[in-house]
Design a protein that fits this description.
The complex is a heterodimer of chains A (247) and B (230). Chain A is α/β, with parallel strands linked by helices. Chain A has 9 helices and 10 strands. In chain A, the strands form 2 sheets. Chain A has a 6-stranded mixed sheet, sandwiched between helices. A 4-stranded antiparallel sheet of chain A has the order 2-1-4-5. In chain A, a hairpin with a 2-residue loop joins strand 1 and strand 2. In chain A, helix 4 packs across helix 5 and helix 5 packs parallel to helix 6. The longest helix of chain A is centred in the last third of the chain and has 16 residues. Chain A is globular, with a radius of gyration of 18 Å. The model of chain A has no long low-confidence stretch (mean pLDDT 95). Chain B has 230 residues and is mainly alpha-helical. Chain B has one domain: MetI-like fold. Chain B has 8 helices and no strands. The chains are: A alpha/beta (247), B mainly alpha (230). At the A-B interface, helix 2, strand 6, helix 3 and helix 5 of A face helix 5 and helix 6 of B. The structure holds adenosine-5'-triphosphate and magnesium ion. The site of magnesium ion has 3 residues of chain A, from helix 1.
Amino acid sequence: MKKNEVILSVSHLSKQFGSNLVLKDISIEVNQGEVIVIIGPSGSGKSTLLRCLNYLEVPTSGEIHLHGMNLHPKSSESEIDAFRKNIGMVFQSFNLFPHLTVLENITIAPIQVLKISKAEAIARATLLLKNVGLSEKINAYPRDLSGGQQQRVAIARALAMQPDVMLFDEATSALDPELVGEVLKVMKDLALSGMTMVIVTHEMDFARDVSDRVIFMDKGLIVEQGTPQEIFQTPREQRTIDFIKRT
Amino acid sequence: MESELGFWAFSKIVVLPRLLGGMYITLQLTLISGALGLMLGMVLALFRISRFSILKWFSLLYITLFRGTPLLLQILFIYFALPTILERYEINMVLDSFSAGVLALTLNSAAYLAEIFRAGILSIPKGQTEAARALGLSRHQTMYKIIIPQTYRRIIPPVVNELSALTKETSLVSVISLSELLYVTQRIGSKYLRVWEVYIWAALGYLIIVMVLSLIAARVEKRLEFKGGV
Ligand SMILES: Nc1ncnc2c1ncn2[C@@H]1O[C@H](COP(=O)(O)OP(=O)(O)OP(=O)(O)O)[C@@H](O)[C@H]1O
Ligand SMILES: [Mg+2]
């Protein structure tokens, strides 16, 4: 499954908010099919990094490559839009569109952005809803769903664009504890299906279970990275050791 | 002779036929400038939140100007001053009092409506825009497919409020001798020297228009089935 073929690469990425340097010269290569989990203390820049990967936040410097595409701080709006088609993102707060049904939430981007036919978009959405176990909610509105169901729809919505890479920013942090499992299961299924994923999470058991590589960040730097075994059992850096002990 | 008629007879023979004509013009003023004001207001709101600073500043200036000066002055300016200014640039624009009235009311209500639309758009959580952009929707698609549709429910009450204010403000156009409701009222009142009978009917006329508009708005609000409770 791991083809050792780099699909997404980040080089020398920095991000500054005013005088606050939040990301410091970050470089990462993500292989096709790889599942990367990013961990680190609050404020270490995990969300900012993820948001820079699809340019919701424009980095101060650095480049991002995906396939033949290359984004840098001077990239045009249309280049960014084209880039985003290939990267799906799941947010902590779901952010489903409340005025659209579950089906419409999932089909709007494929229809508007990829310009596929409505019939094809519906076929895609139907299959995705089946995969996340929500076929019977196809015509419901978001407010009629539980948090866990909303997040599963949000995952299906991102997948409907058939992205090359999926980003998850604390996808289960806003959920009641009893609803976390259903979302993690969907994410695990997705990982097993070979999707390339970059996941920010506080769920350490999940990280151990599904990830190929764990990246530990602190104060805008990648402090250490390695297999889950290496990071959780035999961390080398003191900061990593302290963090793992605390969780 | 008519001045000796009783209240009902005077109302029926003299007042009502003329007031109805005035009411018709008032209604036209309201509907036309209301509709144009809604359109212009939306454009101004979009300018106001645009990322192009020229549009932003233009809109801010416009809104400040039209909300910061009396409507009465705006009406007089457009009717009396504007043609003379244009004349200097060799543009001959003859503005009859109806067009001048529509223009002034449109420009004025657009400024107020723009602020209502802008507040509605800004009230939608940022996560909605981010989710839409992350899916690859363009700025434009995000605004028209995701953000604006979510504002409808929130803006209907203030918009109705503004439109009923507009209905009453049409009376100011009487100063440029447009025979709308108030102008007709004043004319009859001074011609027959019977003031209160005429003014009561005029008040009723405005009240009826405002109430009918509010009723229609309430219907629309109910009809517009707010999807997903939004
Ligand atoms: N839009 C912004 N403007 C200014 N500062 C910001 C902005 N977004 C994030 N920051 C700052 O950047 C730093 C990193 O924030 P970030 O949200 O990336 O951390 P995080 O690792 O995701 O933390 P958490 O685990 O709490 O989610 C913080 O100091 C934060 O205050
Ligand atoms: Mg975060």
